[in-house]
Design a protein that fits this description.
Order of helices and strands of chain A: EHEHEEEHHHHEEHEEEEEEEHHH
Number of helices of chain B: 20
CATH topology of the largest domain in chain B: Aldehyde Oxidoreductase, domain 4
Radius of gyration of chain A: 19 Å
Low-confidence stretches of chain B: none
Oligomer: heterodimer
Mean pLDDT of chain B: 96
CATH class of the largest domain in chain B: Alpha Beta
Bound molecules: flavin-adenine dinucleotide
CATH class of the largest domain in chain A: Alpha Beta
Structural class of chain B: alpha+beta
CATH architecture of the largest domain in chain B: 2-Layer Sandwich
Largest interface: A-B, 29 and 31 residues
CATH architecture of the largest domain in chain A: 2-Layer Sandwich
Strand content of chain B: 15-25%
Helix content of chain B: 25-40%
Distance between the termini of chain A: 43 Å
Largest sheet of chain B: 7 strands, mixed
Largest sheet of chain A: 5 strands, antiparallel
Chain lengths: ~280, ~775
């Protein structure tokens, strides 16, 4: 439970950090909140030769919304989202989601960007990014890349991020008027990673669902949108029957992971239940 | 005014809460760090060990003359098994220590462990009952066919007759998953060699310093007096810290060999992988019932997976033999047959854990009761009412005497408090909304505070039981009580002081309880088996009463009266009915410094010693859980938990409540959350807190406790043991409640923990909903 030896760097600017990553090569890792990385190092599952600590780069510590986009800097901690940051549907929804992440001490250090870099399939923020079509800004030695969430997540702990790049910012387009959002997850204990979760957004027009976004986390190897469920919802009245039908589709469509807490059949059951609950929550919220 | 019965604040708490208590890792500072290379395979041969230059390490081949652990019972149905300190040829479970490395810091020791290369040649492993019991199963120990190392049987002829004529036979199969005692503080120790005396001190996080010393000195071939064992503040043990283990042997060996100081602090990963497990049992139970629900006979087959090795001094017989002897529990029935087996497998060894087998046998008995009740159309209270022992003393089907308790009262009070008819109405209404509520009762009794008379029939090489206490007043009037037992969180420094204070007429805060040091305390056993307050408390009462006699004699001389007329109270010795009195502290001065005045006394000074070795006394309780099952997810929410319990006299009600609550939380964990899992190859899958689901405060409902106080003369203080009951009753109450909640779906629940995935699988199978 003690890490293997490593070198430590604490640059003051994003440019210095990227330069260090380039120089140090594959064996260097970015240290943000440390809530996943340090645990993995203590278990010696991760043995980076060097850490590039970005916590002193003041320019990365921001959250703001401009022109219909929520912009999240690399040092925004989970706890920052526990209070409403924006108007509209995300105003209540993000704090509700944030409170499902780990425990308070972990939320006080862990970062939104760190969650996206780590890409745990059951990360709430990864689900948020995927469902809301976020853009992930990656700063590397040459240029900045903006990768849509749909392309960014590639598998368990696997993303489009390169070893010489830093997730410098996340941009989330803010849903407009008429959107309703709901979230549901199931975990064994308060603070545990969810065994399955759903973030559901529906836009209601004239008593019918006009648009839908159904995101599933913890079910498969990465956060997913269930297009078939979204299609099935459009045109329907937002009622229990429509939600149940969408939930069945989500459960069927998912290619479930299996672990000691949840085998594949159980995950399917959970994905179905969470989808229905998230939709019901969207209607209430 | 008496001190017993008052909720005094614990004397232990100030240093614990302000971070001043010294735990094992504090005590390890300054010693060289030791860490173990552990087997990554469940079974196999050690082909080759490569230790790089510059790394200090010890292997089994170095430990010349060190004997293996070989705990034994002297009975023909017991097969002893040996545990090498560091194996030289074969490994038998994932996590078994193979090489010890030494470094200047814990970090460097981990690096050194990484650099040691051991080549293993895996052989087939057995991890579960089914594969271990096969005739051609690989043998964990060559001399144990079918891996069976205890096979005990009782089968009186009356059993068959009872089953032949019974109106109903109910048969169930119970599975109790493997659990870790999971103390907050992991294991650890430090050994220091003293070149001046040639002695070695082992500071170790233990519940039993004296027996740990005996066990370690034996395998090391040392004189016991060359070894001093000291327990610092111990952050929980629950049984996991009873037994001496190979790691401690290696530390002492190193300290003596290299004449220095060596420490090992276990990390959580090691603790879950290689510190004793418990509770891995499977029971097949048959009950014969009369038409009115009266239990007539039980026939039970008990299988206990004891892991790869035994545990000193209680041995691997502890779980099966406890299960067999105590299975009848609180119920009155005449005919009982049992077979109890210990099965050795390629998994971490088993040791006692709070409750020892009784959480599992209570689950079995209480599921049997509810299953029978459903079959006979009785409610859970009615069937228990019909079968609970009502007249005392009672002799159980296994010949154990039960002193008086409040078995039926506990049940009736619990039933009234939860308003069973009211609950049923609420349950029906909820079901109409698609919500599934359930209620579960568990009634049980628990043998506590038992000494050598109870252990002797087990035929142990080491028969545990008595406790000895020395109580001494110093010239300033302060009292030291030196106890052989060693508390690890139970608050004995407070409760024993309350008992002694009442005998001596002094305030409890003038009494210091000395424990956890073999140099300072009389030989004794320790804190386990719900025995501290009964046996150590009893010995304190006897010793303090003896000391009070001495104080009265001194006072009589000074007050020029007869000893019989002296009363000790409120810190003074007073002449009964008169104004003359002397502070007790002055008696102490006189006894030591004016000894010439007390020539008639048998001894100079003020001290007394007593041993207490009782037969044991039965506590009892009724636990009730109310749950809501989320049938879509298999999640269980505890809505309410109630315990009505009788542990005799409450020496300190707050401490009793703490013991009950802590036990119940571990019982809830047992029922719903915690389980150690292995795969078929014997790899352990649950070595972090992500995988081993210890519940948090958020999962635990408020726990309501109601006390009854049946005082019997089986305990000299009137107190009965209270350490384990919470953990014994809670699992059965919770599982019965879950079973009640989903019964209408045709789901039957006979296993614990009933993790959401498992419960959901049962519901899915029963309701047949396929996607
Ligand atoms: C007990 C516990 C429970 C938890 N439960 C949850 C939960 O329920 N839901 C959940 O989502 N998370 C949970 N977490 C994880 C937590 O949210 C982490 O904080 C998060 O996953 C990582 O963020 P971090 O800032 O701590 O990153 P770090 O741990 O510092 O880094 C994680 C990884 O990302 C890389 N990295 C970090 N930031 C950047 C960056 N800006 N650019 C490039 N690479 C970067 C690091 O190099 C490393 O590989 C839990 C953690 C613990 C310990």
């Amino acid at each position: 439970m003690k890490p293997a030896p490593f070198a430590y760097h604490a640059p003051r600017s994003l440019a210095d950090a990227v330069r260090l990553l380039t120089e140090l090569g594959d064996d260097a890792k970015v240290l943000a909140g440390g809530q996943s990385l340090v645990a993995a190092m203590n278990f010696r599952l991760a043995r980076p030769a060097a850490l590039v600590d970005i916590n002193r780069i003041a320019s990365l510590d921001f959250v703001n919304s401009e022109g219909g986009t929520l912009r999240i800097g690399a040092l925004a901690r989970h706890a920052r989202f526990e209070r409403p940051l924006v108007e509209g549907v995300l105003g209540g929804l993000l704090p509700y989601v944030a409170r499902h992440i780990a425990h308070l001490p972990i939320r006080s250090r862990g970062t939104f960007a760190g969650s996206l870099a780590h890409a745990d399939p059951a990360s709430e923020w990864c689900l948020v990014a995927r469902t809301l079509d976020a853009e992930i800004v990656l700063t590397g030695p040459k240029a900045e890349r903006r990768v849509p969430a749909a392309d960014y997540f590639q598998g368990v702990f696997t993303t489009a991020l390169r070893s010489d790049e830093i997730v410098s910012e996340i941009r989330i387009p803010l849903p407009g008027a008429g959107w309703h959002g709901g979230f549901a997850e199931f975990s064994r204990r308060a603070g545990d990673f969810a065994l399955a979760m759903c973030l559901a957004l529906i836009r209601i027009e004239g008593g019918r669902i006009a648009e839908a976004k159904i995101g599933i986390g913890g079910g498969a190897d990465r956060p997913l949108r269930i297009a078939a469920a979204e299609r099935a919802l459009v045109g329907q009245a937002p009622d229990a029957a429509a939600f149940a039908a969408a939930a069945d589709i989500a459960a069927r469509e998912i290619d479930p992971m299996s672990d000691i807490h949840a085998d594949a059949d159980y995950r399917r059951d959970l994905v179905g239940a969470m989808t229905r609950r998230a939709l019901a929550h969207a209607l209430r919220a | 005014m008496t001190w017993v019965g008052r909720s005094l604040k614990r004397f232990e708490d100030a240093p614990l809460l302000t971070g001043r208590a010294r735990f094992m890792a504090d005590a390890a500072i300054g010693a060289r760090a030791v860490r173990f290379v552990r087997s990554p395979i469940a079974a196999g041969r050690i082909a080759r060990i490569d230790i790089p230059d510059g790394v200090s390490a010890v292997t089994g081949a170095d430990l010349i003359g060190v004997k293996p652990f070989r705990p034994r019972l002297n009975r023909s149905d017991f097969t002893p098994i040996e545990q090498p300190i560091l194996p030289t040829d074969r490994v038998r479970f994932v996590g078994e220590p193979v090489v010890a490395v030494i470094a200047e810091t814990p970090e460097a020791a981990e690096d050194a462990v990484d650099s040691v290369a051991v080549r293993f040649e895996p052989t087939p492993a057995v991890t579960d009952f089914v594969s271990a019991l096969k005739a051609d199963a690989p043998r964990v120990h060559d001399h144990a066919p079918a891996n069976t190392v205890v096979d005990a049987k009782i089968r009186p002829p009356a059993v068959e007759a009872a089953f032949a004529t019974a109106a109903h036979t109910v048969a169930i199969a119970i599975r109790s998953g493997r659990q870790s005692a999971f103390p907050l503080e992991t294991r650890g120790a430090r050994a220091d060699y003293d070149p001046a005396t040639g002695r070695t001190t082992l500071t170790v996080s233990t519940q039993m310093p004296h027996i740990v010393r005996t066990g370690l000195a034996d395998v090391l071939g040392m004189r016991e007096d060359d070894l001093r064992v000291v327990a610092p503040a111990v952050g929980g043990g629950f049984g996991q810290k009873m037994c001496p283990t190979p790691e401690y042997v290696v530390l002492i060996w190193l300290a003596r060999r290299l004449k220095g100081s060596f420490a090992w602090i276990e990390d959580r990963h090691e603790n879950l992988m290689a510190s004793f497990h418990s509770r891995d049992q499977a029971h097949t139970v048959k009950g014969a019932f009369a038409a009115d629900g009266k239990l007539l006979a039980i026939d039970v087959d008990l299988l206990c997976n004891i892991g790869a090795y035994s545990c000193f001094p209680v041995t691997h017989g502890v779980e099966p033999l406890m299960a067999m002897a105590e299975f009848p529990g609180p119920y009155d029935f005449p005919a009982y047959a049992a077979r109890a087996r210990a099965i050795t497998t390629n998994t971490c060894p088993m040791a006692p854990y709070r409750g020892v087998s009784r959480p599992a046998i209570t689950l079995a008995m209480e599921r049997l009761m509810d299953t029978a009740a459903a079959k006979l159309g009785l409610d859970p209270v009615a069937i228990r009412r019909r079968n609970l022992v009502a007249t005392f003393p009672y002799t159980s089907a296994t010949g154990i005497k039960y002193d008086a308790g409040a078995y039926r009262e506990a049940l009736e009070i619990a039933a009234e408090k939860v308003d069973l008819p009211g609950f049923r109405a609420r349950q029906m209404a909820a079901r109409a909304e698609g919500r599934y509520l359930g209620i579960g009762f568990a009634t049980f009794n628990e043998r506590t505070g038992y000494g050598t008379p109870a252990f002797a029939p087990r035929m142990m090489d080491v028969t545990l039981g008595y406790e000895t206490v020395e109580v001494a007043m110093d010239p300033s009037g302060f009292v030291e009580a030196r106890i052989g037992a060693s508390p690890h969180g139970q608050g004995l420094a407070t409760t024993l002081a309350q008992i002694i204070a009442d005998e001596l007429g002094v305030a409890p805060d003038t009494i210091r309880v000395i424990h956890g040091d073999t140099d300072r305390t009389p030989y004794g056993w320790g804190t386990f088996a719900s025995r501290g307050i009964v046996i150590v408390g009893g010995a304190c009462k006897i010793a303090a009463a003896k000391l009070a006699v001495r104080l009265r004699a001194v006072a009589a001389t000074l007050l020029q009266t007869e000893a019989g007329k002296v009363e000790l109270a409120d810190g003074r010795a007073a002449l009964a009915g008169g104004p003359a009195s002397i502070p007790i502290a002055e008696l102490a001065r006189a006894a030591y410094h004016q000894a010439h005045q007390f020539k008639d006394q048998p001894d100079i000074g003020l001290s007394a010693r007593a041993t207490y070795d009782p037969d044991g006394t039965y506590s009892n309780a009724c636990h009730v859980a109310i749950v809501e099952v989320d049938v879509e997810t298999g999640g269980v929410r505890l809505e309410r938990f109630l315990a009505v319990e009788d542990a005799g006299r409450l020496v300190n009600p707050t401490i009793v409540d703490g013991q009950v609550r802590g036990g119940i939380v571990q019982g809830i964990a047992n029922a719903l959350f915690e389980e150690i899992l292995y795969d078929q190859a014997g790899n352990i899958l649950t070595t972090s807190l992500m995988d081993y689901a210890v519940p948090t405060a958020a999962e635990i409902p408020p726990i309501e406790i109601h006390h009854l106080e049946t005082i019997t003369d089986a305990s000299i203080t009137g107190a009965k043991g209270v350490g384990e009951g919470g953990a014994i009753g809670a699992p059965a109450a919770v599982i019965n409640a879950v079973a009640d909640a989903v019964e209408s779906l045709g789901v039957a629940v006979y296993e614990m923990p009933i993790a959401p995935q498992r419960l959901r699988a049962l519901i899915r199978a029963a309701t047949g909903k396929k996607r």
